[in-house]
Design goal:
With 281 residues, the chain is of the alpha/beta class. The protein has two domains: 58 residues, Helicase, Ruva Protein, domain 3, CATH 1.10.8; 204 residues, 3-Layer(aba) Sandwich (Rossmann fold). Helix content is 40%, strand content 19%. It has 13 helices and nine strands. The protein has a seven-stranded mixed sheet, sandwiched between helices. It has a two-stranded antiparallel sheet with strand order 1-2. It is elongated and about 70 Å long. The structure holds glutamine.
Length: 281
């Protein structure tokens, strides 16, 4: 397919099955232009030497690769993040977790000089960086088991000028002996036999599912909470839309109080958190 104009290239991609926004984002990337330029320059000639690049991206998108990987970037909570197939693509649903963390930091943790905040399973660094961006006084540590993911997070931290302490290891292992004022995590939580995993096959399986019923990583994180939370501090967890009851029960059984659940923008129960109270133990 070799289109004569910008509009014809977009129409060709849509005819092949791409939606309008994806077609614009991919053509914009190939031409080094934004969407408003494409709209204003529909009649411009499509540069012949760029057509093959565009066709290749269209074919990859049609085969299921996330646009974020094709562009190498994704916006999250107002930050432009670099992403690669080494990390989960940050989702708008996860902004619920960030907003909750920021509320605590600006509210009951406001008096804590430099609150110690930990992000378990940071991937691209999205959650930790969004918190650091909006709450510069917080001291952010971020753990991931994948060195490739940590490299992406390190690239984002340096590109955005937002310092993070990046630690490699399995959940709490790299922070043995340390306690935090706030711990957040978006761990893998999809059940091992969930058919949605097929549509997510381009993303790291490790970041999506722990296998089994999907709750094992949440169980492991919650089991470590009492050893790593300060008195009065919070653990906030993202989970699947049908896992709120189980996560609430796990938090309560681990001795956390004030357990609450928040919905994402789509109205799904997406985050559950609880507070650790040393005094009542
Ligand atoms: N929210 C993601 C999805 O369902 C899954 C992310 C995760 O497992 N942490 O597409």
């Amino acid at each position: 397919m070799s289109a004569a104009t910008v509009d014809a290239a977009l129409a060709g991609a849509r005819g092949a099955g791409l939606d309008r926004l994806d077609a614009q984002l991919l053509l914009g990337a190939v031409l080094g232009r934004d969407r408003s330029w494409l709209i204003a320059h529909g009649d411009d000639a499509m540069p012949a030497d760029r057509a093959a690049d565009f066709d290749a991206l269209v074919a990859r998108r049609l085969a299921g690769e996330p646009v974020a990987y094709l562009l190498g970037r994704k916006d999250f909570h107002g930050l432009a993040l670099q992403v690669s197939p080494a990390v989960l693509v940050p989702r708008p649903d996860t902004e619920t977790l960030v907003d909750w963390a920021l509320e605590l930091l600006g509210g009951e943790l406001a008096g804590t000089g430099a609150p110690q905040v930990l992000d378990l399973g940071t991937g691209s660094g999205a959650i930790a960086l969004a918190i650091k961006h909006r709450c510069p006084r917080a001291d952010l540590s971020a753990v991931d088991t994948s060195p490739d993911a940590l490299a992406v997070a390190a690239g984002n931290a340096s590109a955005l000028g937002l310092p993070l302490a990046l630690l490699r290891g399995h959940w709490w292992a790299p922070v043995a002996g340390r306690r935090f004022d706030l711990v957040v995590s978006n761990p893998p939580y999809i059940a091992g036999d969930d058919h949605h995993l097929d549509a997510l096959r381009h993303e790291p399986r490790l970041a999506l599912t722990p296998g089994g019923d999907g709750l094992d990583s949440l169980r492991e994180i919650i089991a470590g909470a009492s050893a790593h939370l300060r008195d009065g501090s919070w653990l906030l967890l993202e989970h699947g839309h049908d896992q709120a009851r189980e996560v609430q029960a796990l938090l309560a059984a681990a001795g956390l109080c004030d357990v609450a659940t928040r919905r994402d923008l789509g109205g799904h129960e997406r985050c559950t958190g609880g507070r650790w109270r040393q005094a009542t133990r």
